[in-house]
Design brief:
Growth Hormone, Chain: A, 20 helices, mainly alpha, 472 residues
């Protein structure tokens, strides 16, 4: 029935919006939260980290499980775990407890994210995949970038607990409607087995790598812990490759990266895209609030054009990609993003901060042009029985890119500002006069955004060299 596919798209898009929103909404509430729970910075920093870490480590494994056991049941399980984790997080009484509850929430978010794209791809005919995924990816980016905006208003109007309570009515409605409206997949690979060894080793590799990236700027890249984590990550990755080459039914078929040029290049371009974009809003938010002195709500409004333009552009580019292909749209999107970052650099150097609205509009258009066609290219490049793996891999690129982005841009910024001072600023605990560090902070931002321009150009080249996909 024609209405079925739209019911699926609406429900899965709301689900992915919720999970991506919760990955970004908490940052702006950290100062209030830490005071209320009387938690030290060492504890508080793990509250956002654990969410991204658990999702990154489990996404591909959950996508693989969904291919083997059925996507609907895992989507519903994810909605239940996410909603329950939100309730627990809202009533947390200590920082350490909130970390545990956020991990539960992240498990639910991972189930939702790993299955949503696959369910949508199965429900729409191939000639409409780009259009559908364009709407779905709009929900992901809206959640990522609207998090600070919505979080600022909720924290100011209510308390930090409201950012979790708001998930409860949405989650309950989603569970109810999804149970009755979404059918189980007809494509279940029952004859294959789940790769337990590969899953464990991959989790060790990615967890070690992401924790090292996240804590490297704060603890020092030469610290014993960070070096140990990086060594474990290298060993874990090497062991994972050996296991996947020998096991009969690997968690990630390496042939997808060796022989499927579109899958490999498009996922690489997605990783580059997220590295280039996800840390920008984080650093701009810190600069506008902690250095210039704007309120959280005003800061959120200045960053709002990015999700708005992306939400408008993404469905249009997705629909257009069904007709003309994805290759040149993706490359154009990355080029527009590079232009947006160049405009942002000029605004920071020569114009009032309010003009940042212009650069955010351009960046949002670029993201919209790139994301949904690139996502469509990935999903169209694999067999139906691999939709879960493809969905999980793409989502892993997002979470990993998000972690790398913040670590990379913060590392560049630390070249211009003493790491101890930068840590205090990032933790909203700087007691000095912000005007004394405005110039070095600005110089660091400019250097970081020049790097993002280079990344966008590289991403455009990746999109161009991957070749044509199928009939497109």
């Amino acid at each position: 029935m024609p209405e079925y596919k739209w019911n699926v798209l609406i429900l899965t898009t709301i689900g992915t919006f919720m999970t991506s929103l919760d990955g970004s909404i908490l940052n702006i509430a950290i100062p209030t939260l830490s005071q209320d729970l009387k938690a030290t910075f060492e504890i508080v920093q793990w509250i956002p980290i654990i969410y991204l870490l658990v999702m990154a480590v489990t996404l591909i494994a959950f996508g693989r499980l969904a291919d083997l056991k059925g996507k609907r049941k895992f989507f519903l399980l994810g909605l239940g775990a996410f909603t329950f984790g939100s309730l627990l997080s809202a009533i947390a009484w200590a920082g350490e407890v909130l970390i545990v509850f956020r991990a539960i929430q992240a498990v639910g978010g991972s189930f939702i994210t790993a299955t949503a794209i696959a369910i949508v791809t199965e429900s729409f005919p191939k000639q409409e995949t780009g259009k559908a995924l364009g709407i779905n990816v709009a929900g992901i980016y809206l959640g990522l970038v609207l998090g600070p905006v919505l979080g600022g208003f909720l924290v100011q109007a209510l308390t930090w607990r409201s950012i979790f309570f708001i998930n409860l009515p949405i989650g309950i409605c989603l569970i109810t409607f999804s149970y009755f409206k979404i059918k189980e997949s007809e494509i279940i690979v029952k004859e294959e087995k789940f790769d337990v060894a590969g899953t464990i080793v991959f989790g060790i590799f990615l967890a070690s790598f992401l924790v090292a990236l996240t804590l490297g700027n704060r603890m020092g890249w030469g610290s014993v812990l960070i070096l140990t984590l990086l060594i474990v990550a290298v060993i874990g990755f090497s062991a994972f490759i050996l296991i996947e080459r020998r096991v009969e039914f690997p968690m990630i078929p390496l042939s997808l990266f060796r022989r499927n040029r579109i899958f490999a290049a498009a996922n690489s371009a997605a990783l580059v895209n997220y590295i280039a974009t996800m840390g920008v809003g984080f650093l701009l938010s810190i600069y506008i609030q902690s250095i210039i002195g704007y309120s959280p709500s005003i800061t959120g409004l200045l960053l709002l054009p990015t999700p708005l333009m992306m939400a408008i552009t993404s469905p249009l580019s997705g629909r257009y990609s069904d007709k003309v292909g994805t290759r040149y749209l993706c490359a154009s999107g990355m080029g527009v993003m590079a232009l947006g970052f160049a405009v942002l650099v000029l605004i920071l150097l020569f114009s009032p901060i309010e003009f940042v609205l212009l650069s955010q509009c351009i960046i949002g258009i670029g993201i919209g042009l790139f994301s949904s066609p690139n996502q469509s290219a990935i999903m169209k490049s694999v067999e139906k029985k691999q939709f879960g793996i493809a969905s999980g891999t793409l989502s892993t690129m997002r979470v990993t890119g998000q972690s790398i982005s913040i670590a990379l841009l913060s590392a560049i910024l630390s070249i211009f500002i003493l790491p101890t001072i930068l840590n205090e600023i990032l933790a909203h605990q700087y007691a000095g006069d912000p005007s004394t560090i405005q110039l070095p902070f600005l110089e660091g931002l400019v250097a970081a955004f020049i790097v993002t321009i280079c990344l966008c150009i590289f991403g455009a080249l990746l999109s161009l060299v991957r070749g044509k996909e199928g009939k497109n």
